[in-house]
Design goal:
Elements lengths: L3 H8 L8 E5 L4 E7 L2 E8 L1 H11 L1 H4 L8 H10 L6 H13 L5 H20 L6 E3 L3 H13 L4 E3 L4 H11 L5
Parallel strand pairs: 1-4, 4-5
Antiparallel strand pairs: 1-2, 2-3
Helix pairs in contact: 1-8, 2-6, 4-6, 5-6
């Protein structure tokens, strides 16, 4: 982790003293478990990078056309990722659904994104309490939609938490 700790420090005032989960979506999404203002654990997921690679350099990308995220197909992908079979099986399902004309080309990227984010959520497990989202508003919105489609509570934190975190850290510097 690099600047993510600073963002989390800037958001501590919004977290309970009990165990909280913070997700920082991105090319390499970060998940941190925070308890009593301490980061207990974290994990990193290459979700965004894998999406970009699949879209630009795979057989799946050749069947996709650009367009805005389709919420229905995105949520279908999130739910599909919760089923048995594993990520690689579900990825091939994007191609199979396209070949059988079940998945329109302009919706395939939304479905793929949902599968990848859904798999990330599945790997975290059914954490207790809300998931706090911190980061770029467009990515936070996708993760919020994914969590809510799985009946999980998402809390959006201030995307400028890094500034607050830097201020908090500066207050703890030794004075000369």
């Amino acid at each position: 982790m690099r600047g993510e700790e600073t963002q989390i420090i800037g958001a501590l005032h919004r977290l309970s003293t009990a165990s909280s989960w913070v997700c920082l979506p991105g090319t390499h999404s970060k998940w941190a478990e925070v308890r009593d203002a301490k980061i207990l654990s974290f994990s990193t997921h290459m979700t965004g990078e894998v999406f970009a690679l699949m879209k630009a350099h795979s057989i799946l990308g050749r069947m996709m056309s650009d367009g805005p995220t389709d919420p229905t197909w995105f949520e279908a992908g999130v739910r599909r990722a919760q089923d048995a079979g594993g990520l690689l099986h579900h990825l091939f399902g994007v191609r199979a659904r396209g070949l059988f004309s079940e998945l329109p080309n302009e919706r395939a990227a939304s479905y793929l994104s949902g599968i990848l984010i859904g798999d990330e959520l599945a790997s975290i497990g059914n954490t207790q309490g809300p998931v706090h989202l911190l980061g770029d508003p467009s990515l936070v919105a996708l993760y919020r939609r994914a969590l809510e489609s799985l009946a999980r509570v998402a809390v959006v934190l201030d995307s400028d938490a890094a500034v607050r975190g830097l201020f908090t850290l500066a207050q703890h510097l030794p004075r000369s």
